[in-house]
Amino acid sequence: MSNFDFDLFVIGAGSGGVRASRVAASHGARVAVAEEYRVGGTCVIRGCVPKKLLVYGAHFAEDLKDARHFGWDVPDCKFDWDRLRDNVLAEVTRLEGLYGQTLENHKVTLFKTRATLIGPQKVRLADGQEISAERILIATGGWPFVPEFPGSEHAITSNEVFHLDKLPKRVVIAGGGYIANEFAGIFNEFGSKVTIVNRGDTILRGYDEQIRDRLLQISMTKGIEFRFNAPFESIEKKEDGSLTVHLGNCDPIDADIVLVAAGRVPNTKGLGLEDAGVELDKDGAIQVDETNQSSVPSIYAVGDVTNRIQLTPVAIREGQAFADSVFGGKPTVVDYANVPSAVFSHPPIGAVGMTEAEARNKLGTVRVYTSDFRAMKNVLAGRNERALYKMIVNEATDQVVGLHMIGPDAPEILQAAAVAVKAGLTKADFDATVALHPSMAEELVLLK
Ligand code: NDP
């Protein structure tokens, strides 16, 4: 028995922290976790999960219209934001309970309060209680970044967007990344007038150019407006509570809500990290090595707080690897190659591996195969919306090094295809697989 109160103290009960806590406990460690807000973290409480439920809710707008082409007499339907919001929030509360239950089942001690570091092996809780631990894991995630400009306090972020009192008629979204495009799709389907305002001239930097262009074109066709090279100058709040957004290079835009989605920063402020000697980078991210260890040997970090790849499944892998390595006698290093990702826009995007531009830069000669098609369901529905699949192949080895897709269910299809890319399969392997007909996914094995 060590002299410490716990073998492991985890700060933050999000995806990475909960996984690390329960796995470390299952390896026999005495574990405590502190959470100042709600168990589950960003993904469960105010991110992936409630967002995906809103995406499902929004998609009914199209499904109800399309159903008429498939023979259903659908009366004019009204959407009730309050009902969806409350159902989504109730589901979040249910999941929060399950996460808490998981910790309890693994005999992890949960402190529902803020904890800060007061030394390499000591934390202080908000009530002043001091607790020692042989190792401390920081898993405090990220926080929405809001650029400074006059009136920025009138904007909301993804933290607040799930709780709106009513459906806004006019939505202005700052940023052109994941959150901007996902919520643009959601609000647009619900009938709000949506304008995306971006400081640069592209959306979804990092995704393949042709796929981004396709989303832009479809989004515009659906009625979403875009302003590019338009930095936010100020937000003015009027007496009736409505907002006017003043932009550089563009006319002002009136809005009921302004959603800022300009990236997320590591949540490290006020945690006592600098005093404990933990090295941070210029953005405040904890610097860790491949074993998730910081510059202080007893302090580790996983997930968005380290700003490696800001995705839930990556944080979970890091939490698992940390616990297995440190408490399970099974040294594990996370492999960051070919991590698949998705944007749950309307329609959604799925991607794994190199974009065409990256592959040309890195590999020199590549072969690119595309399928630009209208999904069978869209044809009958009279929906003029084309899917685009793109495969990038290394000319020298025939290996598939990138897959990029936009279209119905693209993330679902991509997850399965990512196994093949991760396994290093070749274009010939894809070709050798018989098509499953009729499906959209069959395009992947029919690329010419
Ligand atoms: P993103 O990084 O996706 O996009 C940020 C956007 O904001 C970019 O368009 C960027 O422009 C712009 N921007 C950055 N800094 C400024 C600034 N100072 N002023 C004005 N605009 C700025 O961030 P999000 O907020 O959309 O999402 C945060 C993270 O959460 C994502 O990176 C992702 O890791 C994660 N996430 C993942 C999802 C998923 O997996 N489906 C869904 C939602 C979030 P520019 O391109 O010029 O840099």
Task: Please tell me about this protein's structure.
- The chain is α/β, with parallel strands linked by helices.
- The chain folds into 3 domains: 6-144 and 265-327, FAD/NAD(P)-binding domain; 152-262, FAD/NAD(P)-binding domain, CATH 3.50.50; 347-445, Enolase-like, domain 1.
- The protein has helices spanning 15-26, 41-46, 48-69, 81-105, 178-190, 209-222, 273-276, 312-327, 356-363, 376-380, 410-422, 427-432; strands at 6-11, 31-34, 109-111, 115-119, 122-125, 130-138, 142-144, 170-174, 193-197, 225-227, 232-237, 243-247, 253-255, 257-260, 264-266, 299-301, 341-343, 349-353, 366-374, 386-394, 400-406.
- The strands form 5 sheets. Strands 1, 2, 3, 4, 5, 6 and 16 form a 7-stranded mixed beta sheet that branches. It has a 5-stranded antiparallel beta sheet with strand order 17-18-21-20-19, with helices on both faces.
- Helix 6 links the parallel strand 9 and strand 10.
- Helix 3 (48-69) crosses helix 5 (178-190).
- The longest helix is centred in the first third of the chain and has 25 residues, at 81-105.
- It starts with 5 loop residues before the first strand and ends in a 16-residue tail after the last helix.
- The site of NADPH dihydro-nicotinamide-adenine-dinucleotide phosphate (NDP) has 22 residues, from helix 5 and strand 17.
